[in-house]
Structures are given as structure tokens and as C-alpha cells.
Amino acid sequence: MIQIQNVSKWYGQFQVLTDCTTSIAKGEVVVVCGPSGSGKSTLIKCVNGLEPVQQGKIIVDGIQVNDPATNLPKLRSHVGMVFQHFELFPHMSIIQNLAIGQVKVLGRSQDEANERGMKLLDRVGIKSHANKFPGELSGGQQQRVAIARALSMDPICMLFDEPTSALDPEMISEVLDVMVDLAHEGMTMMVVTHEMGFARKVAHRVVFMDQGKIVEDASKDEFFGQPRSDRAQQFLSKILNH
Amino acid sequence: MFSTLDFSVIPLALPAIFKGLAFSLELTLIAMIGGVILGTLLALARLSGGKWLGRAAKFYVDIMRSIPLLMMILWFFFLIPLLTGQPIGQEKSAIITFTLFQAAFYSEIMRAGIQSIPRGQVNAALAIGMTYWQSMGHVILPQAFRNMVPVLLTQTFVLFQDTSLVYAIGATDLLKAAENAGMLYGRTVEMYLFVSLIYFAICFALSMLVKYMNKRIAIIR
Amino acid sequence: MNYHWNWNVFFQTIPSGDETYLAWIIHGLGWTVSISLAAWVIALVLGSVMGTLRTVPNTGLRLIGHAWVEFFRNVPLLMQLFIWFFVVPEMLPRDWGMWVKQDMPAKEFITAFVALGLFTSARVAEQVRAGIQALPRGQRNAGLAIGFTQAQTYRYVILPMAFRIIIPPLTSEFMNAFKNSGVAYTVGVWELIFVSRQMVEETGGQVIESLIVPTVLYILCAYAANQLMAVIDRRAHVPGFIVAK
């Protein structure tokens, strides 16, 4: 589904990604973790072309993302993305947030889009807030709406960029629950997160990054059993001992 | 179409143009310095908590900000002779108008600047035994000025452009000098083009300075 | 101060016709409002386009927006008006120039509002750019991520929020358009400043009366502009959204 091949990226002189290679199969859930500044957020933004890469190839569903000829809007419409800061559109009501992409990008009718939107809101437990605006919802609620917005486009895979790190602790689980359900349904997911509990529960593989490099790319059991690299061991002991 | 342009008159007109430019700059400089001093006092009056004083200052600022400068220039030009019984000339009238008018705008900037300094700074100054005026003079105003330098300069940029409005009372600034020279030599088009270029060069340089200051201050913070 | 008040001056007829000064002032107000509103339309349209261009990824388009702003911002309004009125007709091909100078209908009015509109457009563009740049960068990404093109992202995500944020500075630019419209008197538009100056000269010393009525009218115009924008601001209010500044 997603192939990342020898990807390198620079901001000016500064190299943020160095020769990253990994892949995510259909139906697989891969958690990407690592210390802050390790490039994991940058990497996931490269997958749907929000960030350009200077070297290497990224292929999603058989289409090369970093090929100038690729129709990026079309590709992105099939790839759901959930952001750290939710990024709901503040001037639109919740249901409008869910409908806008369906209507303007997928060409669905307004009624069809609303119907689908309501179904998804019901699913994430926000149906009663459909006519409110994002600013009137809590962070956890906003993030669940953001997941519903991504799902409303019927994505073939989902990218999560630290979906819980801007949330208050008591709101994290409500978002993770939605993600766990999604994983159980067989959605292909790439998740940048520090939530190791989530990784333990549903991830198939864990990718550990440090200083722009993929240091470890292992099955969940291997990773939590005994990671091969010292950096990953240090990282794990730091966040698990909290 | 450009063949009829003749820029050879520019050297002849230069002395007059420079005189006009000198007045524009003089007016800008005096109104800026006077305006900042007066504006700071107005800002302090508004923040003083004194009911009567604060209201008077607010009234002054609001009036100045809601009347077009062009109108204000006419008011002062016609009113001062009525009050004093004798005309004081276009140049002096312009200087008084601009200083009093700009004070209102500078005062709003200084007020924002003073309010941007955390309350704890005043408390800290008072705690080490400073008086109100000492805390303003040594602690608050220096910080407020530093933060506000780019905005104060932007206001001065507007002020410099506005000096061209003294045209309305016939004071000989850069623009008027160009018009006079244009008429004298029958080359209005060339003179206007030349003077536009001078305005552009000065304003562009000033806006670059503002940009540079903004970057520097962003770093300091 | 020994001043002889005479409010009846407004009911005297002007020397050059059979209108009263009061009627003349009302006409003057009409011209002031017309110039300001026409200029504001130009400023809003061109300012929005140019301000937006300054934020797009394409370097060439950004450069156009930047050049526009620098060009119209760095020369005083009065100077720009003179350029449009006295210089540009000389730069046109001979026939066109002659037409502009001799036959163009309402040329003083048109030149004045075009000059004011272009001058103001540079300032509006700066506000639009600031509004767009004040939005979190993630908003653009979120738009692109659901498959919007750049243009759609601007249309549905960025501009609706950016314009809401900049309503306060746009309000003061709108009021500035009224305040700046007075320069039109220099090319012979009979707006408020023009009437005011004429009255001072013709009425033989009724200075205060001649100045105070136009001044009050200007204040009322600015107030009306302010209220209009306040209504728009309320209508555009988004529940739960607080402008972070």
C-alpha cells in the first residue's frame, strides 16, 4: 500500500531525513515513534506529498507521490490524514467540515455528503454536536471529528500525525478507542505516536526513528521484547517508566 | 511617446527641489519627535487611572483620529490667525498641525507598547523603591520604546507621505517645489516623475529599515 | 477672539450659481462618498488578489504581488494622483492622451477614485497577506490532505478565515479611504474639502462655519463605515473561535 524507498530530505543545509526505507502492507497498522526532532512527523507528511522530498521514492497504492506528474489532490483524496492540532476548519460547522471535501473533491451531492457525515459522526460519538462549530468542542471531540472527516472521503489508508499529543490526558483514550476500532476493522494505518499502549494493542509493526534515520523496523513483539538498538532501548525505558 | 520628455531641466530645478525636500524632511522630523513626546504623555495620561485626565486624553486622540488630516491642516491654517490675530505662515502652521495630529497616533502606539510590558515589571520596580515616574522612566518606557520601534517607524513612514498634503495651504514641500519648478520650466511631467522617484526611494528605504528592525526584534524576543 | 458667527451663511446662494451653500455641501458629501466607495471596491478586489498572490507557492506570482504593493505603497497618495492626472495622459499614445485630456467624461472623478483605489489596494493587500500568514500552517495542510487543490484550499479554507481575522484592520482602511478622499479636490472634484475651501474664501471670514460642517460630515462617514464593518463582523462571527493575537 505504502512504500517509502531511500527517502532523504533537507531543509536548506539541514538534513531532516536520511535514506529512510520502509513499507506498509494493506491492512497493516504501523506505529512510528522516536524522540522529538527525529523526523517522524516530517516523514508522514511526505507520504501524501505535503512535504516534498529531494531523494528517493514514495509510492502509495501504486502511484509515485513525488513524481511531478502525479495528480496530488486526487491521490490525497484517497489518503486520510489526522493532524496533531486537529485542523478542523474553524469557520464551518462540524457537519460542514465533514461534507466539504465530499462535495468539492469527490463531487457528491450535499445530501449524500451530509448523510454519510452524520453516519460517521454517530460512529465517533459526536452526532449530537453536528451543528456546532469546532471552537465549541473539546480537544478530544475535535480530534474524533477530524478522524470522521478523514473517513468521510472513504480513504484507502489513514495517516495519523501525533493525534493525541495535543490533548489533555483524560481525552486521549476517547480518541485512541476510535483508532483501535478502526484498526480492528482492517484499515491500513500509519501512526506517529508516543502511545505505546496503543502500539502494543493494535500495531503489527513498529518503526523507530532517531535523527532522521529509521533505526529500527521490527514486528511489535520483537520491538517490545528486545529492541536491537541502544537508542530504542533508552527511548522505551524513558517513556515506559513514566 | 517618450520622445517629448526632456529631463535636462532637472539639474536646473535641483536647488529648488532640494529646498522642498529639506522642508518635507524637517516637517517629518519635528512632527515625529514632538509627536512621540506628546504622544507618550497622552498615553501616560490615559493609563494614569485619573478619570478626568484619562478622558480628556482619550477625547483628544479620538477627535484627531477621526478627522482627515487635510481637514485638520485647513483648520489650523485658518484658525490660528483668528486666535492670535496674525498669520503665522504656511510652514509654521504645518509644523504645529502635524505635531499635534501625529501625537494622537503615536500615543496609541505608545499605549499599546506600555500595556505590552507585564504588570510584574512595575511591581518589581516599585519593590526596589522606585517612584512611579522612576519606574516609567527607567523600566517601562525603555522596554516599550524598544518593542515599538518598528511600529513607530511605520507611523513615521505614513507621516512622511502625509507631509505632501501641506500642498493644501501652499507650503513649499517636495511636491509643491516640483509643481513650481514644472511650471517655471514648462516641464511638469518630468518634474512629477522625478519627484515620485525621490519619494519612492525614501519610502522604500524606510520600509526596508522597518523590516530589518522587525527581524532584529523578533530575534531579541 | 472676536468672531462674528453667522450660521445663515449656509442659506446664501453661491456666487457662481443659484444653489445655496448647504445644497453645495450636500453635493460635496455625495462626491466624497462616491469616490470613497468606488475606491474601496477597487482596493478590496485588487488588494485581495495581490495579498493572496504574496502567499502562494509560485515564486513568479509572489513577485507580482510584492511588486504591486511596493509600487503603490511607497509614493504619497497626492503624488500618485498627480501622476495619474497629469503624467499618464502624456505617456499614452497621442490620440488616447488627447481623448483623456479633452473628452473623457467625469475624468476628475474617475482619476481620483482609481488613484485612491490603487493606493488603498496596496494597504489592503498587506492586511490580507498578514491575515493569511496568521493562520496556523496546518490549515493549509488539512485542506490539501483532503484532496483540495491549492485554489480550492484558498477558496474554502484559508481565505474565509483570513478575512474574518482582518476585519478590524480592514475597517480602519475603509475609514482611511473616506479620510483620504479629500485629495480629489486638487484635481477639481467638488467634494467636501473643495467646497469647504471655497466657502472660506467666498463667505469672507465665516471660517468656523465653513470648516465645521464638512468636518462633522467626515466624522459621520467614518462612523458609518465603522458601523457597517461592525455589522459584517458580527455576521461573520464564528462560534467558539477566538482570534489568537
TrEMBL record, chain A:
It is found in: Cell membrane. SUPFAM superfamilies: P-loop containing nucleoside triphosphate hydrolases (SSF52540). Keywords: Amino-acid transport, ATP-binding, Cell membrane, Membrane, Nucleotide-binding, Transport. GO terms for molecular function: ATP binding. Its main location: membrane. The keyword Nucleotide-binding applies. This is Amino acid ABC transporter ATP-binding protein. It comes from Uliginosibacterium aquaticum.
From TrEMBL, chain B:
Belongs to the binding-protein-dependent transport system permease family. HisMQ subfamily. PROSITE patterns: ABC_TM1. Keywords: Cell membrane, Membrane, Transmembrane, Transmembrane helix, Transport. CDD domains: TM_PBP2. Residues 21-210 form the ABC transmembrane type-1 domain. It comes from Uliginosibacterium aquaticum. The chain crosses the membrane at residues 20-45, 66-88, 191-212. This is Amino acid ABC transporter permease. Pfam families: BPD_transp_1. It is a multi-pass membrane protein. Coiled coil: none annotated. It is found in: Cell inner membrane; Cell membrane.
From TrEMBL, chain C:
The keyword Electron transport does not apply. The chain crosses the membrane at residues 20-50, 71-89. Keywords: Cell membrane, Membrane, Transmembrane, Transmembrane helix, Transport. Gene3D superfamilies: MetI-like. Coiled coil: none annotated. It is a multi-pass membrane protein. InterPro entries: AA_ABC_transptr_permease_3TM, ArtM/GltK/GlnP/TcyL/YhdX-like, MetI-like, MetI-like_sf. Residues 29-229 form the ABC transmembrane type-1 domain. PROSITE patterns: ABC_TM1. It comes from the Bacteria. It is found in: Cell inner membrane; Cell membrane. Its main location: membrane. NCBIfam families: HEQRo_perm_3TM. Belongs to the binding-protein-dependent transport system permease family. HisMQ subfamily. This is Amino acid ABC transporter permease. It comes from Uliginosibacterium aquaticum. The lineage of its organism: Bacteria, Pseudomonadati, Pseudomonadota, Betaproteobacteria, Rhodocyclales.
